[in-house]
């Protein structure tokens, strides 16, 4: 593993940091979140035009830049540092990879160039607040996407409508008329940028209560029966919306067919990439909070000296620094593991290659979950210390430190909690596996024999 960044990666980071310093200070952030979409649309178009940010990890043939998960993680670290209100996470991290992986040739040709150019934003809608479970970060998907609900379980239900001639529709769902397609019913809360995204990828349950399967559907903005509401969120820099689906026409993502297992698998593979990007974003926010706090304690004078010279303050900030650096290393490793897994997927062939690819995918998933847990913890610690070490002014709600505090609290609610991320990673690695009965019995017998022999030896020495 080469831990050094390439010149291109360094330039991506430097250019993005310089641009965000000029265009995305705390005052600009507070102004952007109060607009209708919740972000600065002009800045988003600029980032798309100059840096290709929405399509950074999309292939060149789809209109993207052709970079990988490491470059995406570096970009997310810089947007996290500035607390940039943008559709980057919803569009580039969650939605676009699914369109690229599952979409038909026509869907990819229509949607991906518009996403990469910043013309179209997208979001993934997972019912029931089960985003991390659907991505395989906090639990196994033992019921094949049952988290999508449908029927008596709530969530979102999909029904294939009949054409005017009584035959099943083809699934195009484009016009919502009598030509067939799919119809969606239900409600999804806490959809990232759900109130403003031009395209929604909705996970819905179809096939009845007992033989159901989870599929992904494309819902266009302005579709009849679609009601979207912006929610009041703790963290205004990460906009959330509620979508209500009332007999909404939808288009099946992909060519159709059984597809349920493929969708669930694609979501699980996306989890490792998303975890690495979210971890890097949290690291950027934590590092910025630490940097602001260090700058403040150097200038805040108490008892005739800067408070940063007090040993207790030094110790507290040193502990935050160690946590942030450890989280940064974990996020970079997770991104590297995802990239290596993707290379194995593209070049693999044969049974041995498939086994190696599966092992690499599992490694990336565990590394991503642990990196996200480490980053969320570091972000929470850095934001908390920022509020406390700023003293009385830090406790005022309008202070900039609270932007980072709210981001830390909101991220853990959306993508955590930390203990569940770590518990599932440990379970996947078999750390909590029950020992084999025969092996355990033999080990216990050997231990008892060794204990008896030791006791006899001690008695002999004593005599």
TrEMBL record:
Record has Disulfide bond as a keyword: no
Origin superkingdom: Bacteria
InterPro entries named in the record: Acyl-CoA_Oxase/DH_mid-dom_sf (IPR046373), AcylCo_DH-like_C (IPR036250), AcylCo_DH/oxidase_C (IPR009075), AcylCoA_DH/ox_N (IPR013786), AcylCoA_DH/ox_N_sf (IPR037069), AcylCoA_DH/oxidase_NM_dom_sf (IPR009100)
A GO MF term: acyl-CoA dehydrogenase activity
Needed co-factor(s): FAD
Acyl-CoA dehydrogenase/oxidase N-terminal domain mapped to chain residues: 6-119
Acyl-CoA dehydrogenase/oxidase C-terminal domain sequence ranges: 276-424
Residues covered by region (Disordered): 146-178
Keyword Oxidoreductase: yes
Keywords: FAD, Flavoprotein, Oxidoreductase
Compositionally biased intervals (Gly residues): 163-178
Gene3D superfamilies: Acyl-CoA dehydrogenase/oxidase, N-terminal domain, Butyryl-CoA Dehydrogenase, subunit A, domain 2, Butyryl-CoA Dehydrogenase, subunit A, domain 3
PANTHER family assigned: ACYL-COA DEHYDROGENASE, ACYL-COA DEHYDROGENASE FADE28
Family recorded in the similarity comment: Belongs to the acyl-CoA dehydrogenase family.
Protein name (record): Acyl-CoA dehydrogenase
Species, as recorded: Streptomyces bingchenggensis (strain BCW-1)
Lineage of the species this protein comes from: Bacteria, Bacillati, Actinomycetota, Actinomycetes, Kitasatosporales
């Amino acid at each position: 593993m080469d831990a050094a960044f390439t010149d291109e990666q360094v330039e991506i980071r430097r250019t993005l940091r310089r641009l965000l310093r000029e265009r995305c200070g705390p005052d600009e952030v507070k102004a952007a979140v109060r607009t209708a979409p919740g972000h600065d649309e002009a800045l988003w178009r600029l980032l798309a035009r100059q840096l290709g940010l929405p399509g950074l990890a999309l292939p060149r043939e789809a209109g993207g830049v052709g970079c990988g998960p490491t470059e995406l993680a570096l970009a997310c670290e810089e947007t996290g540092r500035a607390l940039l209100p943008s559709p980057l996470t919803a569009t580039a991290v969650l939605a676009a990879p699914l369109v690229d992986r599952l979409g038909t040739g026509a869907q990819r040709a229509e949607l991906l160039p518009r996403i990469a150019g910043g013309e179209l934003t997208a979001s993934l809608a997972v019912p029931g607040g089960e985003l991390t479970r659907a991505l395989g970060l906090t639990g196994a998907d033992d019921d094949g996407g049952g988290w999508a609900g449908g029927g008596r379980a709530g969530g979102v239900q999909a029904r294939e409508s009949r054409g005017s001639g009584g035959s099943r529709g083809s699934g195009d769902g484009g016009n919502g008329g009598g030509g067939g397609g799919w119809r969606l019913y239900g409600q999804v809360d806490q959809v990232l940028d759900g109130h403003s995204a031009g395209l929604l990828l909705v996970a819905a349950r179809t096939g009845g209560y007992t033989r159901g399967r989870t599929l992904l559907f494309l819902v266009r903005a302005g579709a009849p029966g679609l009601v979207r509401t912006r929610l009041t969120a703790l963290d205004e820099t990460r906009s959330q919306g509620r979508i209500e689906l009332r007999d909404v026409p939808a288009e099946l993502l992909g060519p159709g067919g059984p597809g349920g297992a493929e969708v669930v698998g694609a979501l699980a593979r996306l989890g490792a990439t998303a975890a690495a990007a979210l971890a890097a974003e949290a690291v950027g926010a934590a590092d910025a909070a630490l940097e602001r706090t260090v700058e403040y304690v150097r200038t805040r004078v108490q008892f005739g000296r800067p408070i940063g010279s007090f040993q207790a303050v030094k110790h507290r900030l040193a502990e935050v620094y160690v946590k942030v650096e450890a989280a940064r290393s974990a996020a970079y490793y997770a991104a590297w593991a995802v990239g290596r897994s993707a290379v194995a997927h593209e070049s693999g062939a044969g049974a041995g290659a498939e086994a190696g690819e599966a092992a690499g995918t599992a490694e990336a998933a565990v590394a991503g979950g642990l990196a996200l847990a480490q980053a969320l913890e570091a972000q929470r610690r850095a934001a908390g210390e920022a509020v406390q070490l700023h003293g009385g002014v830090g406790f005022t709600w309008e202070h900039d430190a609270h932007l980072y505090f709210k981001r830390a609290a909101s991220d853990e609610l959306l993508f955590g909690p930390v203990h569940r991320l770590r518990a599932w990673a440990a379970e996947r690695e078999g750390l909590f596996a029950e020992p084999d009965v025969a092996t355990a019995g033999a080990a216990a017998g050997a231990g008892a024999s060794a204990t008896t022999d030791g006791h006899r030896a001690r008695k002999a020495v004593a005599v």
